């Protein structure tokens, strides 16, 4: 993805989105100039839809443009919903004219990282995941796709992305100067920063947006790792993402996330429910 597009995406998500009123009321309207979207399908006929964040009002939508997009991939797209009822599990949306932008996506694997970084970011954040839908009878709304953002020095036309690894043999962290196992029902995922092609010219500060398909890691952890329902119908497993961060000219290992399972606290989590 070109640097200019990445800058446009990140800038777009810093502006206010336009809400006229809540869906379901008279003369309703929801307009999203740009939103994260995961392409999937609903219903027995497999209607192609996009799972969108709705900036706090997650929903499934469909439109002529959405019908042409690649299933199981994430995009940035714009849409508008007006006076529409949701009777089939999705809303019919109006395209805003801009072409949907496909985000770089990689599948996370339960193995030790086998690659080094191609670039080192100055920070990492999670831009979107399914936290708001992790309630009773949980089903993945966004296909266990997580959208990450990072800032790094890159050249024009570099094509950056991220890779994600769960190493069962390195579930350890330093506590009070001692390296300890993190224990059950916790997970550390390592992030590596890669690029498929190298540009030219001088490096400039660039926003990187990348998607991690963490469904395989999530399934593996439940079936092969240090996991226990503890007699409960559902369990929250907090996540820390471990990565190398550039601080000035020095690199150091950092993590984002915490081990809290308090619903009132912000955290990154996997939700597991008994079938």
Low-confidence stretches: 1-22
- Quote the beta fraction: over 45%
Secondary-structure-based class equals mainly beta
Total number of beta strands: 19
Largest sheet geometry: 8 strands, mixed
Instruction: Encode the helix/strand succession as letters.
Output: HEEEEEEEEEEEEEEEEHEEE
Kindly describe this structure.
This protein has 275 residues and is mainly beta. The protein is built from two helices and 19 strands. Strands 1, 2, 3, 4, 5, 6, 7 and 8 form an eight-stranded mixed sheet that branches. Strands 12, 15, 17, 18 and 19 form a five-stranded mixed sheet that branches. Strands 9-16-11-10 form a four-stranded mixed sheet, with helices on one face. The longest helix has 10 residues, at 3-12. The radius of gyration is 20 Å and the shape is globular. The protein starts with a helix and ends with a strand. Mean pLDDT is 85; it is low at 1-22.
Write a compact overview of the structure shown:
By secondary structure, the protein is mainly beta. Helices cover 7% and strands 45% of the residues.
Keywords:
275 residues; mainly beta; 8-stranded mixed β-sheet; 5-stranded mixed β-sheet; disordered N terminus
SSE topology sketch:
Layout: H1 3-12, E1 18-19, E2 29-42, E3 47-52, E4 59-62, E5 74-82, E6 91-92, E7 94-95, E8 101-102, E9 105-107, E10 123-128, E11 145-156, E12 160-165, E13 172-175, E14 178-181, E15 187-195, E16 200-213, H2 215-224, E17 234-247, E18 250-256, E19 269-273
Parallel strand pairs: 4-6, 9-16, 15-17
Antiparallel strand pairs: 1-2, 2-3, 2-5, 3-4, 5-7, 5-8, 10-11, 11-16, 12-15, 13-14, 17-18, 17-19
